[in-house]
Predict the structure.
Amino acid sequence: MNRNILISGAGVTGLALAYWLDRAGFAVTLVERSPAFRRGGQAVDVRGVALDVLKAMGLHCEADALRTRSKGMSTLDAHGNEVARTEERTFSAGRLDSDDIEIFRDDLCELLMGAMGNQVEFVYADGIQALSQNDQEVIVTFASGIERTFNCVVGADGVYSHTRKLCFNDESTFVKPLNRVLAFFSTPNLIDLKHWQLIHREASVGYVIYPSRDQKELRVGVGYGTLDAEVSRHDIRAQKDMVASKCVRLGGFFPQLIDSMQDTTQFYYNELAQIHMPTWSKGRVVLAGDAAHCASPFTGQGTSLALVGSFVLARELIRHPDQPAQAFAAYEERIRPYVHINQGLLDLNRKEPIPDELMTKAKNSIDLHDMLKEVA
């Protein structure tokens, strides 16, 4: 049986998939390029049917206890002066009276790790260097030089997936750049912000700021256009310098945060894109989450897509352990309509919040009732 699975990427998608496969008795190995579990990162949203997946995992109550609990947000001008405020919604979470759960990415990942058994193998500070496959297995050469074989490989390694580059042709046709950069970093809470968000939006640059759950840190997201903003995805110093240059016109308290950014180790930088592929699998290799169908942070649905997609993929692998082609085809057939409608939210949220009725439709646009009954 195909019960020896390698998952590349220990983010939400990879961890959720590992949970379900481990629970079903698969031998799961997770490989992650980071040297250890990554702290920091943005607040993410679990919405609609993804909440049902969390309930099936027994994690809904724990996730709800870890929610961010922001009380509102202020819109600021370029000098840090408040020009508007609301206690009805926040930029990152949407309406505050909804059942959605906003939770920090690292808190959610820690929950997922804690829920799985101790049989899952974690390999940090390594990654897939090369892949070859036949009818029975995938031979994986790791960056460390080690070679191992697996029955299937899952690329859950993000929008710029290395697994995708190794296995699929026409990489440039899959990546649809959004001509925006999003940088996210942590700083000490230098402005004593408590349970509140601050946002600034203009044509050239925007930001969102909110405190960590214990209010001791700030999580700061900066977005801007990519014109004349290209830097190496692996040169963190150049990335920080670029962010600083883009924010040079922002006044008030913001220069303090940019100064603090230079010293933080919790720094993430991405050129935003959507991923559109005609198929997500080749032989015994399959893609999941952002690697397969990134919708972009503009939609607010990336984490829900990750949780739902991981559940569906695991369920099909469990149903067809000796027939990966059937498992992957069934996974795509079930999840693609849900992906399509959520990717379509992109243009709606570029300038204004997505209308509530459209968000409700998108986050519930897949029916998992029968599938979830199977694991209850």
